[in-house]
Amino acid sequence: MRAGLAAGGGLVLGGLLPGCSDGGKAPEGAAVLTDTPRRGGTVRFGVIEGGQAGNLDAHKPVGSGAFRGWALYAKLWEWGLDARPKLALAEETEVNADATEWTIRLHKGLEFHHGKTITADDVIFSLLRLTDPQLASPYAGYLYSLLRNDVKKLDERTVRIPFEKGAGLVALAECWMSWGGIVPTDYDPVSNVVGAGPYRLKSFTPGQRSVFTRFDNYFKAGQPYFDQVEILDFSDQTGRLQALQAGQIDIAPNLPFEQLAFLQADPRFEVVASETDVWHSFDMNLEKAPFDDPRVRRAFRLIADRDELVARVLQGQGRVANDLYSPSDPAFNHDIPQRRQDLAEATRLLKEAGHGNGLDVELVTAGGAGANAALVFAQQAKKAGVNVTVTKVDGSIFTGPKRNDWTFSTGGSVSRPFLLTVQQHDGPRAVGNKTHFKDPRFAELITQALGQPDLDKRRALIGEAQRIQHESGGMLIWGYSNVLDAVSKDIGGVTPDRTGFAGWRTDRIWRRSLTA
Amino acid sequence: MSAHASSLRTVLSARQVRFGLVLTLAVVGFALFGPLFAPHAHTDLVGITYGRPTAGAPLGYDYIGHDVWSRVLAGGVSVVWMSLAAAAIALAAGTALGLLAAFARRRVDQAIVWFTDVFMAFPDLILVLLIVSMLGRDHWIIVLTVAVAFAPGVVRLSRGIALGVVNQEFVEAAEMMGYPRSRILFREILPSILTPLLVHLGIMLTWAVGMLSGLAFLGYGVAPPAADWGLMINENRAGLLIQPAAVFGPVLLIALFALGTNLLAEGVGRVTSRIEERKS
What we know:
The structure holds 2 protein chains of 2 kinds. By secondary structure, chain A is α+β, with helices and mostly antiparallel strands. In chain A, a hairpin with a 5-residue loop joins strand 2 and strand 3 (85-87). Chain A has helices at 2-20, 65-72, 120-130, 171-179, 237-245, 260-264, 294-303, 306-313, 343-352, 369-382, 395-398, 418-425, 440-450, 455-472, and strands spanning 42-48, 77-79, 85-87, 90-95, 101-106, 152-155, 158-162, 199-205, 209-214, 228-234, 251-252, 269-284, 318-320, 359-365, 386-392, 408-413, 475-488, 491-492, 510-511. The interface between A and B is medium-sized, with 24 and 20 residues.
């Protein structure tokens, strides 16, 4: 395993360093900087916490709580750099033949921060806590088909997790890597914040600052590297940028695109750009005119100049999309030809649909990248005789009770595998189906794919489902954006990461010069 | 009439007043006629995002590639007409109520004063934000709300000055001659308290510029893709470090407009109080 090798190197160096670090002579004649991970030092993250609050809950993170969770908690599966699930605390996982049960075995000798061994009881406790209706975690919905009462402990390290037949089975790993922090049975998100992540909690002031120290018995040998991790909350981007320039923080994850050019000009920092599956869309409601007509939907998808949208809205930090999400999913259908702007065909379709004399549409948005995209699209639509009026509403209204009723609105979401995204947005049980896309064949394919453990068979099912989405779905997905992380040159280990979490992986990064 | 003309000349002879007037007229002229000279429509996407100033685009390009110069030229109309309208409506409504209070006294006076006191206790900007977020951001709603927020100050001012006038002989004479109340209010009393009210109008204009730009900045004023100086500051502030012209252009114009109206109002106030002193 690559992580293991790197960690070994780090350990050796760690042993050598105390002797030579003060002498100022690093091995191999290099200056003080090194490209080999080494131990020691402190790192300070600056994260944006708009709400000036946040918590430490493993299963119901609020605001920057999700970020802190990466330091505090370890999971059965974790996000690989390729955005696919990778075994973490789990040593082995297996799906049974009729696709109703996961059997999961933990590694031997795993430990929580407080010294207790991680057992099957803790896994069951964590799973039941996550899906506890009383906790009401927003992520519990992904496990709608979990048979909560029948989760069984087979031995000290093995658990059997049953699901309703043919529903939601294979998405378990994809779900788990996002939120499923394993916590001990005596866990409390306030008074006993214990996990098995790379760092243990030292102090936490909501909305301001949290401090963590290294967990020496972390399950990845040799990792993590820092003695201490500090996470500072900022309420706005400009304040954070100033802190970065003043050297008060070392890493600023999720940098706004506007700050890219500025930071690139500063030799003290490196901006790590990760290509991700973060997608941006315009959502057309199939139940409302004019989008109840497939010709209009098709015309709108042909109106979009995706290259211009990426250039203007994402400032070039992204890629064009083909009205489909999750391109990094191993089952993604790459054979569907990319849709490009075709104003002549769009005008023809609109005329055929009875809108030859022009069409007025209101495009609702909440601000941010979505609002900018809406303005650019409105300009493009003019060329096809469509008058798009952009209406900006308050965020609380946009995502309020009417969130799924807009006729035409901006949308998009984070980088997630296909089956997870479809469950959220346009699948048969999607809670946030803004497009009201309900195709019987599509629903059938998704349900089958969710119950299909074999990747090749699943690829066929998802491939056909994506053809249907591409043909008659309600989303105009125009682009995927990069995630930018600004990192001090003194910090190593932040590398482009398909997940967009490059700047979140507290267990992979280290300080190049311990004297700084 | 000649007395009026001469005092107008005295007022205009003050350097501060002239400077304020020129500045105000210049910005108003820029805002009104600017759109005619814009090289592009204010919604046209013609450059790269946050493109630096070039020969064809003296102020560069903004957050999605509009020409900043065209938007600056087009973005003043809303600020100018809305602040003028808000200040004028506040002045008209406030003066009418203030005069009525001063002239009617007793119950009517008490009621009006009580209402204005309650209104004044409520912070202006919060009141406007509240109403705009409830009723929407149509231009006329914003103008009316700002006017409502400013009116209590006018009521207090006009009532205060009018109280000193209503007891003077010429008013009593007019009353005895049986003139209707409206004539007494607007033909007899109003002209004698007009000067301080006009000064206050200028001050309100400054406030209105600040408040309307602030509203646009906060996202409750003019909606994109329309151009508006306050809105432009908000739109482009993320790029402040790489394309400062997109922010400083509108900032400068708002500042000049506010400065102009303020100098004008204050200058007129100073000069007229000197005239009053000389008369007495």
